[in-house]
């Protein structure tokens, strides 16, 4: 069962919803060079195709005894994937802990896709010039 992280003060308590941690993690992950975007389920991927982007897609936050964040990514072709994964882990940990004060115990990065560069368009809009 997930418990909302709370901080008690003189005026009461401050609760931080898991969705907030998802958004912070999404912003941190997509800010890393080599990350094209987040990868979610079929519905989320369809929403991205029609132009709707969600910074929570592809991110799961578990707040049981430990705080675990799982993130699914699409990376750019040619980048060193282990290095990008480590940078994503460091970026998420730093952002979440700085903004919320919640200690992140584990970050699981799952690369679910690679995006290849698009062929350059010619003057008349064709991607592959043809002999005429």
Automatic annotation (TrEMBL):
Record Pfam families: Asp23
Lineage top rank: taxon: Bacteria
Membership in a protein family: Belongs to the asp23 family.
Name the UniProt record assigns to this protein: Putative alkaline shock family protein YloU
Biological source species: Baia soyae
């Amino acid at each position: 069962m997930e418990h909302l992280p709370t901080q008690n003060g003189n005026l009461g308590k401050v609760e931080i919803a898991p969705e907030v941690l998802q958004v912070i993690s999404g912003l941190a992950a997509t800010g890393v060079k080599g990350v094209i975007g987040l990868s979610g389920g079929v519905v989320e991927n369809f929403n991205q195709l029609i132009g709707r982007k969600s910074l929570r897609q592809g991110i799961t936050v578990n707040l049981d005894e430990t705080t675990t964040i799982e993130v699914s990514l699409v990376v750019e072709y040619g980048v060193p994937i282990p290095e990008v994964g480590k940078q994503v882990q460091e970026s998420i940990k730093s952002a979440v802990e700085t903004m919320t004060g919640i200690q992140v115990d584990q970050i699981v990065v799952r690369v679910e896709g690679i995006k290849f560069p698009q062929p350059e368009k010619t003057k008349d809009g064709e991607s592959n010039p043809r002999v005429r």
